[in-house]
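The instructor's notes for this session suggest beginning with a concrete chain rather than abstract definitions. Hand out the sequence below and ask the class to guess, before any prediction is shown, which regions might be ordered.
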Amino acid sequence: MEKDQLRALFDMQKALNERIGVDTTSMDEAAKTQWVLNYTRAMSQELAELTDSVPWKWWAKYQAFDEQNARVEVVDLFHFLISLAQVLGMSADDVFQAYIKKNEVNFKRQESGYQEKDHDDSRHI
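After discussion, reveal the predicted structure:
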């Protein structure tokens, strides 16, 4: 298979994780659970840092939008999101296919007015 940009990111993240001692391919259930928590907590922190890149404090006049830092935080989120996908056994191709399917669900929800939650409309993903 041709190595596209998403596959390249997944390969780079795998190498970085292995460099710091995290092998997402051989985790038992307990390790997977711990790393899902680790990565979701890390993403929560990165989201907070992204939030702090924009002037959200309406009472403070000193703030400015730090777009360069916001971009860095988005990339940090990708690092942890790709790692999380890998812990869950997802390849770049798996993520791409799931995204396509979920995107179709989201469009159907918008077309129908998305008036009530259908918990089964994403089960095929």
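Then share the key points. The chain has a mean pLDDT of 93. The CA atoms of residues 36 and 107 lie 28 Å apart.
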